[in-house]
Specification:
This is RGS domain-containing protein. This protein has three domains: 200 residues, no CATH class; 40 residues; 167 residues, no CATH class. The chain has a two-stranded antiparallel sheet. It is mainly α. Helix content is 56%, strand content 1%. The two termini are 45 Å apart. The longest helix has 39 residues. The protein is built from 18 helices and two strands.
Length: 451
């Protein structure tokens, strides 16, 4: 049976599966299957986030994949911050929790209705102004027809990338203080950005006495506000509704809809892509090298078959052609899946470039293991172009990259998936190799008989 990790979007995502923050539970979306993408339960999203897996399928590797490969780590960083935020909120004294009331589902729905009403009113006002401008001209009818057309350029912006000259917020210290503040000495930049965000949506300035207000303000400046260094890919309606909620309360329920959006993206897209990427045990140069060997094996099978047929030696020697076909097809099939059969034989994988040079330098290794940067929820932009390993890896020649250092794969479930792919490669090679061998010698024999 062929292993399938093809992404399939569920018909709907249930909101009823969100647990109450008051009880300290985490918001989580459930489905009929705990892992519905052809991925074993042992490698499910919940097990990875909960620390129930071994390298190279841990939260650390998941974050690395999103930072260095997908370039979309904001959702996971926000999601991990929120889980910790819910936990810390549940530990607050009741008198402090009462300062920030829960943002109920009814309030959220009312806020969404108000946003839609304001949007419709603004659209009608724009149409009215446009009609006044073109009144009495040849463009009046055309303006009336196109006034209600949707704007093709009104799609929400993508999460901004790290650009030269962009202001960023210096990474905060690791962990949170007792007051919930992780702010540095310079508070002007993020406070201004947060105030502008509230002003843009017409929200009131929030109460500063509420628990974790400074931290929430920092989150808004990083993940929600325009120009945030880790801005989430939210619709205008989601962003406005969240800011209106946060202007009233810092209760975790204010983030309900946004967290659901981020979690859905992680579960339905980022997680399946991460598992598919982790199955590859070799780096890109090694995979290209393996494909070359596979094609070379197939060509060698054709050449050997021709020589044996033309030489007129015993037919038993034709098994050499089948052997070349078998090795070539198996190698090519595994390489097509991103695997090197040699590395798989030892259950090894190549070290990733950021891991490779981190293990060379004790200081870099310490930073890597602690996750200082990508795991700092209130840190700077997810840019890695200036990290030392980038230039070092680019200077490596291709041969050295092909034979980079290896490490043992610790996760049993991942090794099991790779074993399945290896068996599929052998079966495919045996059947296809036999067919090619028979066809090849039949054609050669027919050609010689016609001569």
């Amino acid at each position: 049976m062929v292993l399938s990790l093809t992404y399939r979007r569920p018909a709907h995502v249930s909101q009823d599966s969100i647990s109450s923050e008051k009880s300290g539970g985490q918001e989580s979306q459930t489905s009929s299957s705990s892992c519905p993408y052809g991925i074993p339960d042992a490698l499910s999203f919940d097990r990875i986030i909960g620390g129930g897996t071994c390298p190279p399928v841990t939260t650390r590797e998941f974050m690395d994949f999103l930072v260095y490969i997908e370039h979309d780590a904001e959702n996971l960083q926000f999601y991990l911050w929120y889980r910790d935020y819910v936990k810390r909120w549940s530990e607050l004294p009741e008198r402090e929790q009462k300062l920030a009331p829960e943002w109920t589902i009814e309030q959220a729905q009312q806020a969404r209705n108000e946003i839609l009403s304001e949007k419709v009113a603004a659209k009608k006002a724009d149409n009215h102004e446009a009609a006044k401008v073109f009144k009495g001209t040849d463009f009046e009818m055309k303006a009336n027809k196109t006034a209600g057309a949707p704007n093709p350029f009104s799609t929400p912006p993508r999460t901004p990338s790290h650009e030269a000259g962009r202001e960023s917020i210096a990474p905060s210290t690791v962990g949170w203080s007792e007051g919930g503040s992780t702010l540095g000495s310079n508070m002007t930049h993020h406070e201004k950005k947060t105030a502008n965000a509230f002003e843009e949506v017409g929200a009131y300035q929030p109460f500063t006495v509420q628990p974790y207000r400074e931290e929430v303000s920092r989150i808004i400046s990083i993940y929600i506000a325009d120009g945030g260094v880790r801005r989430l890919n939210l619709s205008a309606q989601e962003r406005t509704a969240l800011l209106k909620a946060l202007s009233i309360t810092t209760h975790p329920s204010a983030f309900r809809d946004v967290v659901a959006t981020a979690e859905a993206s992680l579960r339905q897209q980022a997680h399946p892509n991460f598992i598919r990427w982790t199955i590859c045990n070799g780096n890109p140069p090694r995979q290209t090298f393996a494909r070359g060997l596979g094609i070379g094996g197939i060509v060698a099978g054709i050449v050997v078959g021709l020589l044996i047929t033309l030489s007129g030696v015993n037919r038993g020697w034709r098994a050499l052609a089948f052997l070349a076909f078998f090795i070539g097809i198996a190698t090519l099939f595994a390489a097509w899946k991103g695997m090197c059969v040699v590395l798989h034989g030892m259950h090894h994988r190549h070290l990733r470039p950021w891991e490779l040079f981190a293990s060379d330098d004790s200081t870099s290794s310490s930073d890597y293991e602690s996750g200082k940067g990508s795991f700092d929820s209130l840190g700077s932009a997810n840019s890695y172009e200036d990290e030392p390993w980038v230039a070092k890896y680019d200077k490596r020649n291709v041969i050295r990259k092909i034979f980079d250092r290896e490490v043992w794969i610790q996760e049993p479930a991942l090794r099991s998936i790779q074993d399945t792919i290896f068996i599929q490669a052998l079966i495919t090679a045996f059947i296809t190799g036999g067919i090619l061998t028979g066809m090849h010698f039949a054609i050669c024999s027919l050609t010689l008989s016609l001569r």
